[in-house]
Amino acid sequence: MVRVLIVPGVLYFIDNFSPVRSFIAALLYLVASAGDGLDGYLARSRGQVSVLGKFLDPLADKLMVTAVLVFLVAMGRAAAWVVVVLVARDFCITGLRSIASSEGMVIAASPGGKIKTALQLVAISMLLIRFSYPVLGLGVSVDYQVAGTMLLYISLGVSLASGVEYVWAFTKAVEAVRRESV
Fold first, then answer.
1. Concatenated DSSP letters for 68-133?
2. How far is CA 138 from CA 133, 143, 148, in A?
3. What are the beta bridge partners of residue 143?
4. Quick one: which of 74, 110, 72 has its CA closest to 89?
5. Which of 6, 119, 152, 180 is the most buried (most CB within 10 A)?
6. What is the pLDDT tens value at each position of the chain, 182 positions in all?
């Protein structure tokens, strides 16, 4: 729930004109994302995985990512069509996993899904930072808007590919259940 409470802070600090506010938005987003990893690690290591946690964790993730991406579209930092495709893919996969769960099947997170999540985390963080900054000691600057946009497009490709992985896993799980019932 703490991650959900951090989202308004991230949105509040997104700013197209202030590098400081943009940095704070990115920092809050990274804190929320780190909280996600810590939360999952603690729940698994302590054996405190709950049904409520299994529901709230992905919900908080989707809310955080979707809210920030939609706001980035509104600020002109991300292409609307990319965000629509990313959000639609997440809704579809969440729906598929819910159907599987209601039928007693588990569709585990795929490697592609984990890579997609990591790429989105870095891309969104860069888009939140937005401004160009020099790389210490190299004499060049990184334009975080351009780099974040490129990574968001890469995450889109990985997202679609991992979506296919999930559909394939769902199809195999359904076939396995059918074979067992015959």
1. HHHHHHHTTSS-HHHHHHHHHHHHHHHHHHHHHHHTT---PPPHHHHHHHHHHHHHHHHHHH-SEE
2. 11, 14, 20
3. 132
4. 110
5. 152
6. 788 889 999 999 998 899 999 999 999 999 998 887 777 777 778 877 776 676 677 788 889 999 999 999 999 999 999 999 999 999 999 888 888 878 777 777 788 888 999 999 999 999 999 999 988 888 899 999 999 999 999 999 999 999 999 899 888 888 888 888 77
